[in-house]
Amino acid sequence: MTVVSARSSSIDLIGNTPLVLLQGPSEAAGCEIWGKCEFANPGASVKDRAALWILRDAIESGALQPGGTIVEGTAGNTGIGLALVANAYGFRTIIVMPETQSREKMDTLRALGAELVLVPAAPFSNPGHFVHTSRRLAEETEGAVWANQFDNIANRRAHIESTAPEIWEQMEGRIDGFTCAAGTGGTIAGVGLGLKAFDESIQIALTDPHGAALYSYFTHGELKAEGTSVAEGIGQGRITANLDGAPIDTAFRVSDEEGLEWVRRLLAEEGLALGLSSGINVAGAVELGRKLVAEGREDPRVVTILCDTGFRYLSTLYNRQWLESKGLPVFPWL
Predict the structure, then answer these.
(1) Are 68 and 143 in contact (CB under 8 A)?
(2) Pick from 267, 217, 256: which is nearest to 234 by CA?
(3) Measured over all CA atoms, what is the biggest interatomic distance in the chain, rounded to whole angstroms?
(4) Which long-range contacts (CB under 8 A, 24 or more apart) does 126-131 make?
(5) Do 205 and 179 meet the contact criterion of CB atoms below 8 Å apart?
(6) Does the annotation count 291 as an active-site position?
(7) What is the 3-state secondary structure (H, E, C) of the chain?
(8) What is the rounded distance in angstroms from the CA atom of residue 83 to the CA atom of residue 77?
């Protein structure tokens, strides 16, 4: 049994998350599929890492002064991470979020002391988009810094410097593939760059939900979206600064139905309550595993990100009425 060492600060609880071998996905892929348990971070998501690196960068550059405020537009998880880290450092937080996100995220942000500003969902080209609104609020607020998670490459540095080395060490240098979806692009780009620095032969795959444009971009060179998805926090229609130069070798497109099937199975068979982004990631990992097997790699091992806890979606993914209203399959126990 490995005993986790004591931590001298709550900030030090971010990262060093466990890896778990996923039995059902491994059987489906014909090789080992591992999940990086990012729901084990203090804010219960992978976004805690970006939050910490962004805040540290703002402090070290002098942009964020004592008593200052961090402002961000987010689907929720980055805001939660920023609120926790800001509390630990003594800063205020203002979070702008689309009103379509889960009630649990809104309630969590308010409970953490963040000032929450809700705006209608809008395309990025609309000035009312949550990202643009957050930038304007930061400009209008004295002593405020805009986190700018989509184009602030402190985001992807978090994964180059922490997530990728952790995965490499935990897998004892035996890893053949990595995949996850992109929201800001920080995780897929950062982990990809970090792992490629250890071993260039590791295949990095983008797993894209319907409604996003990156699958088309990385397979045909054109930003083109098809379909829709209810997944929160993933799916992108542009090449952000964090995505620029991402070492993507291949890409998969995964439907909400496929992702939900893995959410269902991982809970019913392995006791993991996860969000839809995790289910989509796992579906992509199975596809990548099958690809590597077909290419003749001997006993390939694939890692993906288990992004956040399912407890953040009790009013949506785990609610019969909500699933029925979206025309999605309902878990049998609901």
Answers:
(1) yes
(2) 256
(3) 58
(4) 129/73, 130/73, 130/74, 130/96, 130/97, 130/98, 131/73, 131/96
(5) yes
(6) no
(7) CCCCCCCCCHHHHCCCCCEEECHHHHHHHCCEEEEEEHHHCCCCECHHHHHHHHHHHHHHHCCCCCCCEEEEECCCHHHHHHHHHHHHHCCEEEEEEECCCCHHHHHHHHHCCCEEEEECCCCCCCCCCHHHHHHHHHHHCCCEEECCCCCCCHHHHHHHHHHHHHHHHHCCCCCCEEEECCCCCHHHHHHHHHHHHHCCCCEEEEEEECCCCHHHHHHHCCCCCCCCCCCCCCCCCCCCCCCCCCCCCEEEEECHHHHHHHHHHHHHHHCCCECHHHHHHHHHHHHHHHHHHHCCCCCCEEEEEECEEHHHHCCCCCCHHHHHHCCCCCCCCC
(8) 10
Q: Please tell me the distance from the alpha carbon of residue 260 to that of residue 168, in angstroms, as a whole number.
A: 29
Query: CB-based contacts of 66: which residues, under 8 Å, 6+ apart?
Result: 90
CA quadruple 111, 117, 123, 127: dihedral, nearest 10: -160
**Residue 277 near residue 8 (C-beta atoms within 8 A):** no
The amino acid present at 74, given as its one-letter code, is T
Residue located via tokens 């971009």: 217
Tokens, residue 325: 């209203």
Query: What's the CA gap between 197 and 212, in Å, rounded?
Result: 28
Question: pLDDT, tens digit, for every residue of 165-181?
Answer: 999 999 999 999 999 99
282 touches 304 (CB < 8 A) = yes
pLDDT by residue (tens digit) across 68-120? 999 999 988 999 999 999 999 999 999 999 998 889 999 999 999 999 999 99
pTM score over 0.85: yes
Tell me which of 36, 47, 105, 291 is the catalytic residue.
47
Return the residue matching tokens 């998805």: 229
Strand order in the sheet with 92-98: 115-119, 92-98, 69-73, 144-146
Burial class (CB in 10 A: 0-12, 13-18, 19+), 127: exposed
Bridge partners (DSSP) of residue 309 are 274
Query: Cα dist. 89→29, 68, 239 in Å?
Result: 44, 10, 31
Relative to beta strand 32-37, strand 301-306 is: parallel
